[in-house]
Every structure is written in structure tokens, then in C-alpha cells.
Fold these 2 entries.
Entry 1:
Amino acid sequence: MNGLGHGVDALARWFSGTDSPGGLAITAAILLLWVAPLLLIVFPIASVAQIIERKVAAAIQRRVGPNSAGFDGPLRFGFRVVLWFLPRATQDRCFERVTGLPGVRNLLEVARRLGLGQLAADGIKMLGKEDIIPSGADGAVFRMAPYLALLGAFLPFCAVPFSQHVVMLEIPVGAVYAVAVAGISVMALLMAGWGSGSKWSLLGGMRAVAQMVSYEVPVGLAIAGVVLWSGTMDLHAIVAGQYQPGVLSFAGWNLLQSPFLALLGGIFLLAGLAECQRTPFDMAEAESELVSGFNTEYSGLRWGMFALAEYSEMILIGALFTTLFLGGYQSPLCEEWIVGLHPLAESLVHVTIFTLKCLLILFCMIWVRWTLPRFRVDQVMRLCWLTLVPLCLVSLLGVAFTMLAVGAVEPGVPYGRLPAQPGLATGLMGTVLAWLVPLVPGVLLVVAARRKHGSMHPALRELTGGGS
């Protein structure tokens, strides 16, 4: 064992055919299981996410969205380069014949309607823009900030399990590691604001740092609730603890075990939205106030790196939410059958399920952006410290009381190559009671509040003029 994880050790032994693999076999296993998931899953989704967002926004606003740019230009340029020795008229005829083939023509039409041509056009435009560094900027700090932003967005994926055999780092403190290394992005945004030498960028960087540092508290508390319930900080062990044999595999997911865990899941998703600087929490990039915030002075590829880091962080929030609350890569149905497949087939199925769950969370985050207006600075901070943090503390207390009330612990069921994870022996009636006990007082409080204040909250009535 090389201490590089079960997948790397097993694949390296398979490559070399011995129990003591060499450096070449270990390197190949690392590239396949550590680098490939980022390059083949995270990076493509983060790159295509802007087109996904524009398509979702168009559907919400009942318009077409990006569909006018095709691949005619890049393909024609490719024909010019490859057939350079032929006359231009001959090159054009070859281009028209190839693109006019039925299968090729239909494929190009589908790509145009999906907006993939617009993605290519945006990428070429971004790469072609001049990389400008302002005269009053700190050059070293200005250049380093986008790289640190990407580093903080990609490093947490090392501890996220994509399947039983596709996981980079199986460390006992994976949950703490993911939150800790994601904090690099805070330094990146501050460096971008300070190094730009612009007051708009500086104010945007200060806002971003204040917001991200504040919302790391409810994110950490939400993760702490799952860690308390699961009894481990290992993300892979948390996934294994949510395994439920039988047809209804989703019955073991943490989101359904307790209303306090469900509340923590909602808080985690809301705070994660603020961590990504997304609407309605994009006060650091408020164009009506700060031009574009911390990235005002960036252009070309460096600006694109900040955009890629933002979408990568959105995928990271989706991956962590899936791992902590939605059973990770487990299927909602018949997981017991999937885990018994060949390791290669099992990995393909689980990676696909995990990716679909992350895309669902990504869609929800995009949906929120195109639905809600931007909050003010004071509203953003008040929501964090006066609402989300107290709710997290109440939920943590509720999780602890639930665990004390149950008391009994059952050994659990082994999950594939992972050992059995002990869990609370709640049973069906215990789970029902765990939901009813907090929900009944909550419903009574809501009914009492509606009788006292009416169907509209007094603050909202005053804001909208409903009381006049």
C-alpha cells in the first residue's frame, strides 16, 4: 500500500501485475483516478455551465437563448489550414460537401440549438482579448489572484468520493479538509481587489471577504450536524453510513433522517449560494454600485479564470450537498444491485448518478439567481448572523437531543468494499417520531403567528405598503 487511496493502490497493482508497483504504474493510476475526474467531470461541466445558465434563464424568461452561433466559422478555418495547398474555391466546395452530409448537418444544427457554438465563440473571444494590467496595480498580486481562485475551487474535490473506487483522498478529516482548502478563495478575492489598484475593486474584494468569511460559519455548522449524526468526518464513510439495502435506497439518506438534518441541508445550500457570490448574494459584484467588483480590472483569460472558479465552486457545493445529504453517488433505487456490479461498471454508474445529482443542484442555484432580486449588504449579513447561525445552533441541539433520545446504536450493513458504519437504531417508528416531535410545535407556532400578524409578515407589509 502506498497510502494514496484504495483506488490508486489497486489500479497500480493491476497495472504492474505485482503487489509492489513501480513509479510508472503509480503515476498512471494517479493520473487516471486523481486528474481524470477533474478534467473529465468538473472542468467540462464548469465550462459548459455558462451555456446551461443562459439556456435555463431563457426558459424562465420565455425566450430562445443562445442559438445563433454555429461551428461554420471554426470549421471553415480548419479547412483553410488543412487544405492550404488547394485553391480557395476548392476549399469552399470541400467544406460545403462535408457539412452538407445528412448526419453532419443534423449534428451541427443540434450543436447550434444547444448553444455549443456560442460556447466556442465566447472561448475564442476570451482568449483573443488583450491581457491588460493596470498601471497602478501590484503586478505579482494581480497575476496570482486568478490562479489561487482556481486552486481554492478545485482542491476540495480531492476529498469528494465520485464512486467507491474513484476517490482521490480518503482521509479521516475529509469534511474539514474540504472547508479548509476552499478558504483559499477568500485570499484570492482579497488579492484581486487589493492588487488591482482600483477603489471599486478594493471595495468589491472587501465585501467578498466579509461575506465569505461570515457564511463559512453556517456552512461549517451544517457540516458539523452531519458529522455529529454520522460519527465521522470521513466523507466516504458518511456516504457509506447512508446506505440502505433493498429497493428504496433513498430511505437511508441523511436528508430524510431528521427535520433538523433537512433544515441543515437547506441552510448549507443557501449559505453555499452566498459563498459562490451568486444572486441574491452577489453584492461583491454589484454592477450598479461597483462596476464589476473585485474583477473589474481583469480581462481576457484571467477574467475567464474567475468565471471558471465561480462555476466550479457551484459544482463543489452541489457535490458536498450530494455527499452529505443525498447519499453521495448512491442510487435512490436498487443500490444493493448496483454495488454488486464489476468495479468498472459500478464506477461508471455511480459517477453518472453523482454527476446528475450535482447538475440538479446546479440547476436549482441557477433557478434562484433568475428568480430573486439582489439583497442589500446589510440584509446579506443580517441573514447570516441573525437567522442562519441561530437556526444552525438550534438544529445542532435538535440533532443532539434526537441522538440522546434514541440512545441505541446498531452495527450497520457493509457497503461494498467499505466496512459497516454504526448508526442510530431509530427504526420506522423512531424516524416518524423524530419528524413529528419538532414539526408539530413548528406548525403550531406558524398558525399562532398568522393569527397574530395575518398572512403577511409586518416587515413585508410595511415594505410593500400593504398596511395603508
Entry 2:
Amino acid sequence: MVFGLFGKGAAADLLIVNGHIYTQDADMPWVEAVACKDGKVLALGSSREMDAFQGKTTEVLDLQGHYMTPGLIDAFGTPVLDVFRQGTLFIDETMSLDEILAFVSEQLSKSDSEDTFFAYGYPSTLLNDLDSEKATGMLDELGSTRPILLLSKDGYGAWVNTIGLDLAKEAAEEEGIEILSLPFTISVLNPFSYEEIQTAVINQAWDYSSKGYTGVYNSGSPDVFDNIYQNVLVAMDQEGLLPQRHYGSLSIFTAINPDFVGHKLLQNRTKCIELDELINYNTLKLYLSAENRSQFTDEYLRAVCTSAMERGFDVEIQVTGKDVLLDCYKTLGSLKIGGAGKSCFTVAHNESVTEAERYEHLAPGEILEVGLSPLQTGDNTQIFETLTKGGAEKLALLDKLGTIETGKYADFAIFESNPLEGKGLPPVAMTLVAGDVAFDNEEDQPEEWNRLVLAQNFDDFDDEDLSSEN
């Protein structure tokens, strides 16, 4: 029986035939062939049945007995931070002020470069009790001839020494800029090697592809990093080399004005409007723990969640600590959430709670609860479901991803053997995104991808696009 959206007269763009195709759809778990049109699944059934959808321009992909599944989704990753960890110093947020100064001093002594010294991750509240001159003077004592730029964990604060500030002020005067913003300061001090970042992003995309991933979610990184990373994705897209759908989020670690949060969400979504749903921005992510609970009051949580909801964004709250989690339930219970067309709420935690504790304030099914990391144990079928349907559900995209069904995105992973058997997933032969081959293990190499993207002329990126508009 053919499962399809249209009648037999509809011609497909692509027919995928002669395979073992695991759909993850309980009503029709295995088929032999799939027809695709306009980047979505048009119909599925036997190879003979799919012949009805072949037209003059239809391409045919013969799986020759290989196994095809929905594309895998990394819904728990931190791809942007992973890239920047390769060439950026990260500060342990548990360090005290003196420990951070000692860390910076040690790192400065290891380098004789005159380029801007950059490190990321100091606690956002670290300098609250210091006046700006004293804070600047502390960095001057570590190095007064080389710019030093430290970025706070939330990405909205910077700690700069005098020479760094002077360079930024001089550039601002030359350009007639009255307010010295963080994005402008970063663009002037230029602490990143964009070519190295580009190479790291491309290598990461290739690595994801080689494991069968066609969807990636990002959280936990500041706008400064996100914007640079996205510029590489855009350059890859322009070369037809973007092998995953990317889903971004705005991460909030400290209480920031809810109206500003709403503005940033819309601003970042606007950048993705014309990118064919390959680069997306759908989520506000809050990090809630005992350490910052005093900032994230019930009133603030309601205000910031409402700000996101009113603009059509989903909300994910990562919670550490059972008492904090129960408070979170109470706050969410006071919001009008759920229902058709409404924002989706996800709470990620590893706490043990009873049904009574969970539903004292929440209606069953009102929020989605997930662990802080994907399932790592169990048989391949369970792990595989976590990486397909589970990932799509966490991203509130189960209507588009996670299974092979009519109307969903034609995002697939093709394996050389059955991925549901044995331990670990088998080698990936190919991935498809929106019905197009995104990765071919026999033909694609990261070095060639990097060469093609480099031809986009990385230096053409606008400085204002390299950082957030804080």
C-alpha cells in the first residue's frame, strides 16, 4: 500500500529505491522506497509502487540494499562552544577573582605575541563590586603593552585593559561613534582567527555527517561566538555545502531585561529568514540553579518566558537542583502554556521527582521533560530512537523531523548495514537534507569543503555581523 500526499499523477523530484528503509513510524516501520518532492517526503512504499511518481526530470537513487533511516539529530550538543574551545582560552567560571588574574598572567607569560589576548567565561557578577578604573588597572598590571580582552560567560560583559580601551576609543572617534559598544570593541581588537574558525566549523560539519547527523541544536554560547559561527554556515550554504539543519538558541545565564531578550530573539531570527530553513533560531534557553535562583525570581521567569512566548519562541529551561526544579514547576504552572500553535516548553534536568511533585502545579503533558544528555546505554533501537524522534521532540519539531512520513523533511541517513543491530552505529555511506545529497562518504573530504568556502572571501564579513548588538 502506498502512503502518499498526492495522487499518482504527481511527479517526484527524487525516488529512493531498493533499500531497507526504517521509517520510525509505528504504522509502517519498514518500506523499500521513498518519493520526495520540494524537499519533503511525497510518498513511501515498495519500489514498484514508487514508479508511479517518476517523471521526466525525476532523479533516482538506488540504495542497492543499503539501510536508510531518518537523519540523526544532535539535540544536546554545544557545537559553537566546541569550535571555539579549539582556539580560545576558556576560564573556569568557579574561579575567584584572584584565580582568574593568576590564570591570565600565566597564559600571557606563555606567549610573546602582540595580538589581542582573549579569554572567555568569567562569571558575569565577578566585577560587580569593582569600579571600572580599578578593574582596568588589574589587567594593566598583567600586561600594559598588549590588548587584553576577557568576555563574561553570558557574553554581555567585557573586561579590557587600558591599551585595549584606547584602541577602541581611537577607532570610535575616527568613525564618529559616540558610544563604545561591546560589538565595536571586539571588532576593533579582532581577537579571533576567522580562517581557523572556518576550518573548525567545516571539520565539525563533516564529522557530524560521517556519523549520520542531519540536524544540530546549539545552546550555551554567547552571541559573539554564535554570529561568527553562523557566518561560516552562510558561506557554506552559498556553496551548497551545508550538510545539517542548524537550530540556534539564545542562552541566558543571568537576569537580563525581558524586553531586551525579546529584541535579541527577534533580531537573531531575522538573520535566518531567507536561509531555506537550514539555519533556524527558535528557542530561548534559561540556565537555572541554586546559584542564580535569587536573580531568576518567579516574577522574572514569568516575564522573560512571556516575552519569548509572545514572539512565538519555544522555551527550554535547564535546571540543577531538586528544590529549584520544584520552584520552576510552580512558575511554569502559573503561565498559560501548551495547546495548538503555542510555544513549547522543555525542562531539562537529572533530578528524581514523583508524579505528585511534578503535577502539583502542572497538567500532564504541559511541558516536555528530558535529561541533560541523550540516552547513552541500551540497545541500538532505543539509542536510535533518542537520536531521531527524541531529538525532534526536544526541539518541538516532531511534525517535521524524526520519522520518515509524508509531508516531513526529506532528511535521511544511509548506512552500510543495519543500524539497529550490533553495538554502535555502522559506517555512514551518505546523508540527504531536503532531498539533496549533503554528504557522500566516497566523494566528500573536509579539505575540499574548506577550499570551496574559503573562496567566499572570509574578509568580506561585515564587522558588525561578527558580534552581537549588545
